[in-house]
């Protein structure tokens, strides 16, 4: 049994404190491509009444990879609040009584997970939180200046001489230039900027 699997017999009465740190790859479901995530910490409490079990805590770690702007190393930490409800038996079908649920309930931010077996598996729920926390692109820092499109110099380190000679036409989309020539009145007036 994995450390991420908590036997139901342990969760009774008082809330059980959970404080685990594991490699991000150990949370990854079989057959799913990995994410660039380092060690992940799952911390919170797990309580239950024998039918429903509730985890209330946080999932934290760091995404590691290459900066999308300057191609240098990038580490982006994440720390998300997590509330998971594990329920015995199947969950109601999402389309049953949809109209009634839409009027009665708002999205409460709680992840509901069917419970099958004699243990609660925290790995799948934690993996879902990691996937939802993944940024669209990794950056070494929010103010990353990136690379010079002319010479390729890292603009975070120093300014290159290319920037002085660049103008709007340097980066114009040449593939659509003919379309712009057909409609000269539609060219944006850049003098107001």
Structural account:
The protein has 193 residues and is an alpha+beta fold. The protein has a domain at 5-133. It contains five helices and seven strands; from the N terminus they run E-E-H-E-E-E-H-E-E-H-H-H. The protein has helices spanning 24-27, 98-104, 122-133, 162-165, 177-182, and strands at 5-7, 16-23, 37-48, 52-66, 73-88, 111-115, 119-121. The protein has a five-stranded mixed β-sheet. It has a two-stranded antiparallel sheet with strand order 1-7.
Order of helices and strands: EEHEEEHEEHHH
Major sheet: arrangement of strands: 2-3-4-5-6
Q: Helical amount among residues, as a percent range?
A: 10-25%
| % residues in beta strands | 25-35%
Distance between the termini: 62 Å
Low-confidence stretches: 101-106
Total number of strands: 7
**Looking at the structure, what is the overall shape?**
elongated
Q: DSSP helix count?
A: 5
The value of Rg in angstroms is: 25 Å
Q: What structural class do the secondary elements suggest?
A: alpha+beta
Average residue-wise pLDDT: 80
Quaternary structure of the protein: single chain
| Biggest pleated-sheet summary | 5 strands, mixed
Please outline the helices and strands:
Elements: E1 5-7, E2 16-23, H1 24-27, E3 37-48, E4 52-66, E5 73-88, H2 98-104, E6 111-115, E7 119-121, H3 122-133, H4 162-165, H5 177-182
Parallel strand pairs: 5-6
Antiparallel strand pairs: 1-7, 2-3, 3-4, 4-5
Summarize it.
The protein is an alpha+beta fold and 193 residues long. The protein has a domain at 5-133.
Which key terms come to mind for this protein?
alpha+beta, elongated, two-stranded antiparallel ribbon, single chain, 32% strand, 193 residues, 5 helices, five-stranded mixed beta sheet
